[in-house]
Specification:
Elements: H1 2-12, E1 59-61, E2 97-98, E3 109-114, E4 118-125, E5 131-137, E6 140-146, E7 153-161, E8 180-182, E9 187-190, E10 196-202, E11 208-215, E12 226-231, E13 237-241, E14 245-249, E15 256-260, E16 272-273, E17 279-282, E18 286-292, E19 298-305, E20 326-328, E21 332-336, E22 344-349, E23 358-363, E24 377-378, E25 382-386, E26 407-413, E27 416-423, E28 433-435, E29 440-445, E30 451-452, E31 455-456, E32 459-466, E33 472-480, E34 491-493, E35 499-503, E36 506-511
Parallel strand pairs: 2-28
Antiparallel strand pairs: 1-33, 3-36, 4-5, 5-6, 6-7, 8-9, 9-10, 10-11, 12-13, 13-14, 14-15, 16-17, 17-18, 18-19, 20-21, 21-22, 22-23, 24-25, 25-26, 26-27, 28-29, 29-32, 30-31, 32-33, 34-35, 35-36
C-alpha cells in the first residue's frame, strides 16, 4: 500500500507521463469491445492511517441543531433515479443540495475502505441503497457496487482503459470516466474512453451486467473525447465532448444528431436540464441553453458570453468557468466566470422570452486569488461558491501546503444579488454539498499544516458550515497524509443521511453515532 501511494505521488508530480511513448497512428488503434476484466479492489482494508493522526485535533467545534432551509421544489426528471441519488450533482438541476438531513456532528463515526490507487469521483445510490460508483485510476475506469455500511465491493465491471490520444495526465484527465447518471430501474449510463455510452444494469444481487453499448466514434473527432451525458425530460440522451460537439442519442433507434459549438470552445464540466426541455452547458467562453428540434436534433436556443479572463488560474482545469450550470427555482441559472482580478458569480434569467438574460454579476472570493472548478450549490434563495485557487493536484496539499481560503454565499432576489457571508475555511477541491434538511453546508477542508516539534502534518477534515450564518460549526478529522486527499471527488449524502467522500485511496463514510 505504501508503494502504491509512492507511485501515486510520483505520477502527481509529473514523474509518470505518457510523453515518452511512441503513439501509433489513429487508424492503427483498435476500438475493442469493452470486455476488460475488473481490477480487483482491496477488500476489507481501511485507507491506511498514519501515527500523525494522533497529533492533530480529531474534532473541532460542537454538534449542530437542525435548522432546515426552505427551497424551491426541484422537479424529478422521469428518466433519472430519485433526486439526491442519480448524478454527481444530485439531480437534473445540478443543485448539489439534499432534502435529507446529513450528519449533525454527534459523536461522529468515521469508517474507510481502500480500493487501491482508484478514486470513485461520481457515485449514485440504487433502489436498494447501495453505492454505485464510477471509479478511475492510472490504468482506466470501472464501475463498482459497494455496500453502503461496510464499504466492501459487491461487484465490479471495468468500462474502459485510458485513451493515450486524449489522456496525458491521469490527474487532470476527465475523458470517458468522470460523469454518469443512474435511472429509476438501477441502470447506469457511463461514457467510455472509446467514445461509447454504456448501459449497465445493477441486478438485485448487486452484480453489474452490460446490457448495451452505443458507439459515438463516428461523431466524435479522433483526438476528442466524451465528457458528460444527461437525459432530457423526453428520455433522449444528450452527450457533450471536450472539443464542443453536442449530440443527442435515441436509445430506441440508435439515431444520433449532433451540432458543434464555435471553434476553440471546450466543455470540461457536467450539464443541467429542466422540465421545459432546456439543456444547460457552459463552455470555456459562454453559457448555453440548447433544445431538441422536433426531429431530436440539438440546437442553440440562446448563448451568453462571459469574461473568461486572460489566464488559466491555478485551481482550474481550463481557462473559463469551472462550474456545471446550477438551476434554482423556475427562473435562475448560475455559473462563475474567470474574470481578473476577481471572479464573479453570474446569475441569468432562463425563462422563455426574457429580454435581459444576465440578472446580476457578483464579485466573490479574494482578488487575484479566487476561482472555482466545482459546481455552485443552490440553497434557499442563494448560490454558494468554494475557492479552489492554488490547487494544482495532490502535491499542492503536502508538506503543510494547501490552497486559498474562501466559501461565499450569494443571495439572489428580483432586484439583484449580494454576498451574505464569506467563510475562511480552505476546501482545495471538495465539491461542497448542502443539506436542506438540517441547514448545513458540507465541505472537505485541509488547513495549512501546523508545525509540531519541527514536523508539519497534513490533516483533512469533513467540515460543517451553518448556511444561514456562514460560521463553521464543526470539523471532523478523516486522516493525515496524501491518501486522504479527495482530488475533485464530490461529497455525497446517502438516502439515510450518511455522508461519503472518495479519496485518492478509497472511500470514507461519516455518520452520527
Amino acid at each position: 500500500m505504501h508503494r502504491a501511494l509512492t507511485l501515486l505521488a510520483g505520477a502527481a508530480a509529473g514523474v509518470l507521463t505518457a510523453t515518452t511513448l511512441a503513439l501509433p497512428a489513429a487508424s492503427e488503434i483498435p476500438q475493442p469491445e469493452v470486455t476488460l476484466p475488473p481490477i480487483p479492489a482491496v477488500r476489507g482494508l481501511p485507507i491506511p492511517s498514519l501515527p500523525t493522526d494522533l497529533l492533530v485535533p480529531k474534532f473541532i467545534g460542537a454538534p449542530a441543531t437542525a435548522q432546515p432551509i426552505a427551497h424551491a421544489p426541484i422537479p424529478q426528471n422521469p428518466w433519472l433515479s430519485p433526486n439526491g441519488t442519480n448524478t454527481m450533482h444530485n439531480d437534473a438541476y445540478a443543485s448539489d443540495a439534499y432534502q435529507v438531513s446529513g450528519p449533525l456532528g454527534k459523536n461522529l463515526r468515521v469508517k474507510s475502505a481502500s480500493y487501491g490507487v482508484r478514486e470513485c469521483a461520481t457515485i449514485a445510490f440504487d433502489s436498494h441503497g447501495r453505492i454505485v460508483g464510477l471509479c478511475g485510476g492510472l490504468e482506466g475506469f470501472g464501475m463498482m457496487v459497494i455496500n453502503p455500511v461496510t464499504l466492501k465491493p459487491i461487484s465490479e465491471l471495468r468500462t474502459s482503459a485510458r485513451d493515450l490520444l486524449t489522456s496525458a495526465n491521469p490527474f487532470t484527465d476527465i475523458c470517458g470516466g468522470t460523469y454518469f447518471f443512474l435511472d429509476g430501474h438501477d441502470v447506469a449510463y457511463p461514457t467510455t474512453a472509446q467514445k461509447t455510452v454504456l448501459k449497465i444494469k445493477v441486478q438485485p444481487n448487486g452484480k453489474l451486467v452490460k446490457e448495451h453499448e452505443w458507439s459515438l466514434a463516428a461523431h466524435v473527432p479522433v483526438k476528442d473525447c466524451l465528457i458528460a451525458t444527461m437525459p432530457d425530460w423526453d428520455g433522449r440522451i444528450w452527450f457533450f465532448t471536450q472539443q464542443g460537439t453536442v449530440g443527442t442519442l435515441d436509445r430506441e433507434t440508435g439515431a444520433v444528431e449532433v451540432t458543434q459549438l464555435p471553434d476553440g470552445e471546450e466543455v470540461t464540466n457536467s450539464v443541467a436540464t429542466d422540465e421545459t426541455g432546456g439543456m444547460y452547458v457552459v463552455s470555456t467562453h459562454a453559457l448555453y441553453r440548447l433544445d431538441a428540434t422536433a426531429a431530436g436534433a440539438p440546437e442553440v436556443t440562446w448563448r451568453e458570453v462571459y469574461d473568461r479572463g486572460t489566464r488559466l488560474k491555478p485551481g482550474n482545469l481550463s481557462q473559463g468557468s469551472g462550474t456545471t450550470p446550477t438551476l434554482l427555482g423556475d427562473r435562475w441559472v448560475a455559473i462563475n466566470d474567470n474574470a481578473d482580478p476577481q471572479t464573479n458569480v453570474l446569475v441569468y434569467d432562463r425563462r422563455e422570452g426574457a429580454t435581459d438574460r444576465l440578472h446580476c454579476t457578483q464579485p466573490v472570493l479574494a482578488a487575484n486569488a479566487g476561482t472555482t472548478d466545482n459546481s455552485l450549490v443552490a440553497a434557499g434563495s442563494s448560490f454558494i461558491i468554494e475557492n479552489n485557487y492554488g490547487y494544482k493536484g495532490p502535491t499542492s496539499t503536502i508538506l503543510g501546503k494547501t490552497s486559498t481560503p474562501g466559501l461565499s454565499r450569494v443571495m439572489v432576489d428580483d432586484n439583484g444579488c449580494h454576498v451574505a457571508w464569506t467563510n475562511d475555511s480552505i476546501a482545495p477541491s471538495s465539491v461542497a454539498k448542502a443539506s436542506l434538511g438540517n441547514g448545513l453546508l458540507y465541505a472537505y477542508t485541509k488547513p495549512k499544516g501546523v508545525p509540531v516539534k519541527k514536523n508539519v502534518f497534513d490533516a483533512w477534515y469533513f467540515t460543517a458550515i451553518d448556511i444561514q450564518t456562514g460560521k463553521t460549526v464543526w470539523s471532523r478529522l478523516t486522516g493525515t497524509g496524501i491518501q486522504w486527499n479527495n482530488h475533485y471527488a464530490a461529497i455525497y449524502l446517502g438516502p439515510d443521511g450518511t455522508a461519503y467522500i472518495a479519496t485518492l485511496a478509497g472511500l470514507v463514510r461519516i455518520q452520527d453515532a
